[in-house]
Description:
This protein is an alpha/beta fold. The protein contains eleven helices and 15 strands.
Amino acid sequence: xxxxxxxxxxxxxxxxxxxxxxxxxxxxxxxxxxxxxxxxxxxxxxxxxxxxxxxxxxxxxxxxxxxxxxxxxxxxxxxxxxxxxxxxxxxxxxxxxxxxxxxxxxxxxxxxxxxxxxxxxxxxxxxxxxxxxxxxxxxxxxxxxxxxxxxxxxxxxxxxxxxxxxxxxxxxxxxxxxxxxxxxxxxxxxxxxxxxxxxxxxxxxxxxxxxxxxxxxxxxxxxxxxxxxxxxxxxxxxxxxxxxxxxxxxxxxxxxxxxxxxxxxxxxxxxxxxxxxxxxxxxxxxxxxxxxxxxxxxxxxxxxxxxxxxxxxxxxxxxxxxxxxxxxxxxxxxxxxxxxxxxxxxxxxxxxxxxxxxxxxxxxxxxxxxxxxxxxxxxx
Length: 380
């Protein structure tokens, strides 16, 4: 994939940058700014040739726009769009307050680890009902398993970043392996999307290493940490997760919120959460990239091969190969057959091989490996 095509694919929003005091360059699109007759922010578009590029331009323009429905007082909407300049690999969220760009009662909605059709679609429906937008940090294996879902997220105007290929703890595996997992994930999500994705990254387990951060800086990839942790992987009880999020927001009063669009607890609470954010006067800030960054050719090849393998082996409602089996419900199915059906075979959530027993023991409490996959899933 040519670097020039990738670098030129993003449309620049005409945004206002006053009063931020952010080290990395940010531009804000305030709701009162003139967006033009069609509701879009004024743009300085880079020319493209070809229908696919034209389609990409439309998707990018939508992601930078504040839709007309956001003005509906009954919807959460979007208060402003913040354009992130990823040059030099800035870091946002958590303890990185020098790059803070959120005001009181402003939040950024983020979802990790997907896509997973059965749950991601319900999250998209809730977001659409409130005319608001989010950022999805996608795992490469999940993206190539369901590229149509990746494109559906983008078509809805959301931002797509990356979260490695196989959700490995990059701090624990050494620079070469960590670099490979990041780069393959970036290439895989890009290939699945069929267009450049945001140069935004979130570390699995929020576990960053200095060497990997240095690599991201050289690659001009922005990293995003969090201010509010749903820990939705710990329970299927949506009420518990909802209360956890709101209790943290009552303290922070703003921040980047982490959820997972592969968790049933999140799909169960998302409508209620968005309703509450609206009722309590919170505003959603949508983050978009100023420009894209190229993938690396050496990782584009295996990423394209993985995507092709999925396409060749996919059956209606499912995809599989020797390295991952992620069972997807049919397009029209509202939910999987069971709460754990769609993710029991995720590579990072696989059960350890059962150990042979001489005889079953009565009244044995469930061990961690026997618990539902949601409670054993990775946290970020």
